Design the sequence.
């Protein structure tokens, strides 16, 4: 199996955690996509994933699966013992709902902030983020505010729950965790009052699948691009 991704980026990092959780890292060939050079917006990549995004999974029979949730479901169910997407109807529904909230209220807000309120991925990517649109920075700022509201929402959830969707670590935790890392990289701080969210983040950072996931530092050329 192949995964098209790029080290250090938020959504690919979700799948690295999934692979570590399921013990599948050694079965994957990782193919690096040049996001900064807009490789994912060119015809060969768009033919594989019309949304022009990574990660993308290619199975040995050529089947192409995009969307981190779909890729997670595939790996979680491979061994017949799903641990990240729920076993019972109730667990499955709760995880699905909280995961979706993490994407819409948090990840999408950070993404909008990063691409529209900051320099984002740089000049080669500008044509794909409407640079001519006069209101883009203001829209990006509003997306940032939406992400901060999302942080407060998840802080409230984690005041009364061990993990985002219940008692066990799930796909919903992975999405919230990756979103917070993305927010930090984009310069959006977690509000000080969100103590439950910060404590949960420290705990998740220590999980073996999160702590030891391989290849998740930004590539040197990307660090240079981000001025780090
Ligand atoms: N809904 C997709 C989102 C994937 C996504 O936004 N990936 C980012 C990298 S973290 C990307 O490809 N960004 C490039 C772009 O939007 O042009 C998923 O869940 O996998």
Sequence:
């Amino acid at each position: 199996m192949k995964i098209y991704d790029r080290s250090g980026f938020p959504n690919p990092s979700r799948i690295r955690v999934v692979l570590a959780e399921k013990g599948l890292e050694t079965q994957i060939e990782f193919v690096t996509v040049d996001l900064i050079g807009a490789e994912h917006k060119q015809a060969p990549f768009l033919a594989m994933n019309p949304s022009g995004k990574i990660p993308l999974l290619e199975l040995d029979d050529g089947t192409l699966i995009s969307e981190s949730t779909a890729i997670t479901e595939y790996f979680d169910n491979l061994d017949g013992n799903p641990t990240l997407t729920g076993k019972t109807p109730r667990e499955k529904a709760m995880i699905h709902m909280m995961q979706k909230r993490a994407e819409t209220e948090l990840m999408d807000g950070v993404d909008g902030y990063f691409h529209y309120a900051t320099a984002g991925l740089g000049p080669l990517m500008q044509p794909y983020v409407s640079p001519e649109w006069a209101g883009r920075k203001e829209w990006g700022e509003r997306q940032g505010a939406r992400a901060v509201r999302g942080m407060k929402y998840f802080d409230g959830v984690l005041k009364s729950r061990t993990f985002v969707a219940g008692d066990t670590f799930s796909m919903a935790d992975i999405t919230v965790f990756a979103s917070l890392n993305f927010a930090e990289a984009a310069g959006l701080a977690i509000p000080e009052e969100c103590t439950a969210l910060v404590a949960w983040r420290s705990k998740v950072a220590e999980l073996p699948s999160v702590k030891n996931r391989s290849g998740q530092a930004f590539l040197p050329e990307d660090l240079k691009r981000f001025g780090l």
